[in-house]
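Render this sequence as a predicted structure.
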Amino acid sequence: MNKNHEIGKNKMNKSDSQQPVRVQKTDMKGLIVFNPTAGDGETDTLKAQLQEGLGEEQFDLLKLDDDMSLCTELSDALKRQSYHWVGAAGGDGTVSKVGSCLVDLELPLVIIPAGTGNAIAEALGIPEEIEKACRLPVDGGEGRRIDAIRLNGHNYFLQVGIGLEALTMQKTTSEQKSDFGELAYLWTAAKEALDWEPQELEVTIDGKRQTLEASELILANIGSVGVMDLHWGEDIKPDDGRLDVVAINARSAGDYARVITSLARGSQADSDLIKIFHAYEKVLVESGKPLPIHGDGEDLEDPWPLEARLIPGALTVIVPNS
């Protein structure tokens, strides 16, 4: 790795994963990966906002393409030029893709919230305004180490979902998200819930096996559900060295209404429809048939049975000074 990458290396010491590291004001250049389909899909608008925030000489752009091997493209770009940080301009899915590569490349991530769902950015206190978010590496900020969920060689930072939530992600189109934002997910979930039945799952958490009936099972690294300001749990933090396993057993519209009420009020512990477990190492989920799975909002194919590991302090993200 090029010696000029020392900002990332300074913050990749896992023994200090809970300690923020101050990032000095710098003129060092970054590479921003952008998703042309995120948010309103206006690429020219995004470029103008980045230029307003950073200036043209402070960054280069790399377009995210469905057919590209992002980690290879990033690695090749870093060999051609010394970048000192990498940005992800898009929603949670874009952040997940870029962040997963950076776990191995040892560079800090700058999150530029430009997608439909920006729950990771929100949880880390990153400004909603693109012009402000992109300036964090040059104005000086803190490097915050966050945990990851590793599944099939990829790292996820928000959540991995099994069941109805994953089916909802799968069935909600880009056009619906662009037209209706978060409401698109709720509309799809309401339709799919009519025919979705709870499944019997064998769930092994840190070696302890149990049978659960669940309409959806969530491995949450961040508390936010991602819609309507709902939370799986208020005490779920991206750097707490823990995965929260949330099992929901809902069978009717009334049940789902009660679940949403509990998530909105923070009364999950009092609900007979919600069970929460804690994992510190590994979660294995098995069932009699493959079920829909998503990772940070992206549909996942053939990872069944699911075996997920917690990777503490996997990624450094530049956040505002505390």
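Summary. The chain has a mean pLDDT of 86. The two ends are 30 Å apart (CA to CA).
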